[in-house]
Amino acid sequence: MLLALFQPDIPQNLGAALRLGACLGVPVHVIEPCGFPLSDRAIRRAAMDYGDPAEVIRHSGWADFAAQAQGRVVLFTTKGATPLHDFVFRSDDILLFGRESLGVPDEVHEAADARVIIPLTAGRRSFNVTVSAAIGLSEALRQTGLFPKA
After folding, report:
1. DSSP state, 80?
2. Measured distance CA(148)–CA(113) in Å, rounded
3. Spatial distance between the Cα atoms of 77 and 128, rounded to a whole number of angstroms
4. Nearest-5° angle of CA 119, CA 135, CA 1?
5. What is the dihedral of CA 106, 108, 113, 114, to 10 degrees?
6. What residue ranges do the domains of the chain occupy?
7. SS3 for 60?
8. SS3 category, 138
9. How many helices (H) and strands (E) does the chain have?
10. How confident is the model over 54-100, as pLDDT tens digits?
């Protein structure tokens, strides 16, 4: 299982996602371009002391990522999708999260093997992308028995 971020806009969210990946033992793939300068040094700075143990793989764009993807791409989206609690995850799933500002373009939405929504109370738009990633990844790891052992 892995976590993929599509063109993140906010470096602090990338840092939090790297910490999430490091703590749960899940690689984090970053699909560029990002909304901020991205270098290995910037990644380490954003991740603080969790950057080194996090496995980070950078992709130059969607085509590069899609060509290398091994597993089912599960897009978390606010558009027509299966509710999180009704979706059955697999151990080789790629959990994909879009840009904070725009989500993902139609071509990425259509290329996903599955689309999942985290249900919210009426009148609410969405969670922060890293909060969504933590919720989605936690459920996927729980279902597949891949949560780290205490």
Report:
1. S
2. 26
3. 12
4. 120
5. -60
6. 2-144
7. coil
8. helix
9. 5, 7
10. 788 999 999 999 999 999 999 999 987 899 999 999 999 999 999 99
In the block, tokens 């603080």 appear at 48
Q: Which residues contact 16 (CB under 8 A, 6 or more apart)?
A: 130
Give the integer Cα–Cα distance in Å for 12 and 42.
11
pLDDT of res. 12: 85
One-letter amino acid of 57: I
The model scores a pTM over 0.85:
yes
Instruction: Tell me the C-alpha to C-alpha distance, in Å, between residue 78 and each of 25, 50, 69, 104, 119.
Output: 27, 29, 23, 11, 9
CATH class of 2-144: alpha beta
**Would you state the structure tokens that stand for residue 137, as one six-digit string?**
């990844």
